[in-house]
Design brief:
By secondary structure, the chain is of the alpha+beta class. It contains 6 helices and 15 strands.
Length: 227
């Protein structure tokens, strides 16, 4: 399941993030890559634990918590603190699959990466290349989102970022451990939640059919969730 979420950031949040990133130091993105990824990764990243990263994380984390679509699609149990990268001058990230287990910085804990998320922070017209390509059972899906939008996709997907040949691609990236491990189940729950919300808007939340479907949704989560 690949889900694009428009306008996850407000104009004010997007401007704040761009300001933080424009004044921040950058380091080699391979510093946080695994052995396989380091061979195909060519980008820059905000240093983990830096004041700029902490400031940017606070802005983005607030936006994620506010997004009903993100919460419904991801059903997050844990979210790795967002990181931030920049691609320019031919920077790219070759085909890879994200690591299954991530270390939570400063917590001495690990989490399973079920979902990967990219939040686009630059106008796509401001740079050439930089498309995120995600491969699933039906072929390749290409995403070059508007500034302030996000895309969620399964972390076990083979994916890559094409070379940036003009301008700079700014983005945030992070991983989610979902309450529901299986992508197919998350997809069904997301569709059911959307249908319930649409029906409730038409009939009212206390409509008998809406109440029955809402109960079904929560009972399915109760059956599927790992807590």
């Amino acid at each position: 399941m690949l889900i694009e979420i428009p306008d996850i950031l407000t104009a004010e949040e997007l401007a704040a993030l761009r300001r933080i990133l424009s004044d921040a130091p950058w380091t080699d993105g391979r510093d946080t890559a695994g052995a396989q990824s380091a061979e195909v990764k060519r980008n820059e990243q905000l240093p983990v634990g830096s004041p700029a990263e902490a400031e940017a994380q606070a802005v983005l984390s607030g936006a994620l918590a506010r997004s009903a679509t993100f919460m419904s699609a991801a059903l997050p149990r844990r979210i790795l603190p967002p990181m931030f990268n920049r691609y320019r001058g031919g920077g790219e990230f070759g085909a890879h699959v994200d690591n299954a287990i991530r270390v939570i910085p400063g917590a001495n804990e690990t989490m399973r990466a079920d979902l990967s998320c990219t939040v686009f922070l630059e106008d796509p017209a401001a740079y050439d290349g930089g498309e995120l390509v995600v491969r699933d059972h039906y072929g390749d899906k290409t995403v070059k989102g508007a500034a302030g939008s996000a895309v969620l996709y399964p972390s076990d997907s083979l994916h890559y970022v094409t070379p940036v040949t003009r301008g700079a691609r700014l983005a945030s990236f992070f991983w989610i451990q979902s309450l529901v491990r299986e992508d197919a189940r998350r997809s069904m729950l997301f569709d059911l939640d959307g249908a319930v919300q649409t029906l409730s808007a038409e009939r009212g939340a206390n409509d008998p059919v809406c109440l029955k479907l809402t109960g079904l949704y929560h009972n399915l989560i109760r059956n599927f969730a790992e807590v």
